[in-house]
Design a protein that fits this description.
Rossmann fold, 383 residues, 15 strands, six-stranded mixed β-sheet, alpha/beta, 2 domains
Length: 383
């Protein structure tokens, strides 16, 4: 009898413990990350991946599990991985991708599965039409506004354009074409090239034929150096502006002397040491670098990886306000609502976020500076 009671007691204890473990596991907050570890977008995606591998295992006291998958810089792979994360891993939120085309596809997955998506790529979207999507990077019009202001200061009236033959190139062109900074600005060309092209001589000659005062390159990563190389090789002496997507050492490594004096907008965090103590992002940017440098060294710093850390900071701000159990539809809905309603003056590494029903990014001019290549390094532009 006593033995039977012991056995029954043991079985009950085991069952209770297993149930408790199950509940603890169910309570973990799951984050599905889709970034480019390989392919043309790897220069952006690998630093993001590094951040998620370095983050604390809790957010605001909530245990968190990060599941990071490689989209291989491919839209089809990105969609397949996002669906896998939702269907098989039951993630509470999706984060990614660094590629605009992949991110645009992930937006459709987020809407279909009613799972919040935090974009790490600077996408152009309507929050009312895409209520499940939120974006961390500075909107392209905000960043290109800094470029246009610099062009205005330098008397630019004619600008040639060359950009990627994809959504990124389209978005940058649109930001320039719809600008309201320079009265009567003439865009003399709209040339395009593929991210993996190695020669753009025909496009270069067309641009030079129009004799623009400056050229805007709507590209990102190391591939953004190609127009610089081609234009300088053909003798173009005017100013060449890039996007914030090209502010990396890989851009300089590929472009060499041909990218000297290149100008681009940038988020402030990579240049935190040059910011005034009163700058709101300086403290969080410094804290981020302490974490990232300890794991990968200062030489591995990326101008883009701070977006991943800002996603973490946004979740840290809203998770305590989400009154539901992770792993449930109710949790995903409340998390979406909190991102929209409770992100007010949240200080990140790139800027200060305040989101609303119509603005799922929430950054302003505090999220941008202008930088220039000097002595083979990107430095804050001072003139």
């Amino acid at each position: 009898m006593k033995n039977r009671d012991k056995i029954l007691g043991g079985l009950v204890f085991t069952a209770v413990m297993q149930a408790s473990v199950g509940l603890a596991q169910a309570a973990d907050f799951s984050v599905g990350v889709v970034v480019s570890s390989t392919g043309s977008g790897a220069v952006l995606g690998i630093p993001y991946k590094n951040v998620f591998e370095s983050l604390p295992n809790q957010i605001a006291g909530q245990p968190v599990k990060y599941i990071v998958l490689n989209d291989e810089s491919d839209v089809t792979t990105g969609v397949r991985n996002a669906k896998k994360l939702v269907e098989e891993s039951n993630v509470d939120i999706l984060i990614g991708s660094n590629s605009v085309p992949v991110t645009q596809a992930l937006m459709r997955v987020a809407a279909e599965y009613k799972t919040p998506l935090i974009s790490l790529g600077p996408i152009d979207f309507d929050a009312k039409k895409d209520p499940w999507t939120f974006s961390i990077p500075q909107p392209i019009p905000l960043m290109m506004g800094a470029v246009l202001e610099d062009m205005k200061k330098n008397g630019v009236k004619k600008v040639g354009y060359i950009g990627f033959a994809d959504a990124w190139g389209d978005s940058v062109y649109k930001a320039v074409a719809e600008q309201k900074v320079i009265d009567g600005l003439e865009i003399t060309t709209d040339e395009r090239y593929q991210r993996n092209d190695v020669s753009i001589i025909a496009q270069t000659l067309k641009i030079m034929k129009t004799q623009p005062d400056a050229v805007v390159v709507g590209a990102s990563g190391a591939s953004g150096a190609l127009p610089h190389i081609s234009l300088r090789d053909k003798g173009y002496q005017g100013m060449i502006y890039n996007t914030h997507g090209s502010v990396s050492q890989d851009f300089i490594r590929i472009g060499g002397k041909q990218v000297a004096d290149a100008i681009a907008p940038a988020g402030p965090y990579l240049f935190a040491s040059q910011l005034a103590e009163s700058n709101p992002v300086k403290a969080n940017a410094t804290k981020y670098f302490e974490m990232y440098d300890a794991a990968y060294g200062k030489e591995a710093r990326s101008p883009f990886a701070g977006y991943a850390y800002d996603a973490y900071l946004l979740l840290e701000a809203v998770l305590p306000k989400v009154a539901a159990e992770p792993g449930t539809e109710a949790f995903r809905v409340k998390l979406r609502d909190s991102l929209e309603q409770d992100v007010k003056e949240v200080v990140g590494t790139q800027g200060v976020y305040t989101m609303t029903e119509t603005d799922h990014n929430g950054l302003d001019e505090r999220a941008r500076i202008l930088v220039q290549v000097k002595d083979q390094k990107w430095r804050v532009k001072t003139d």
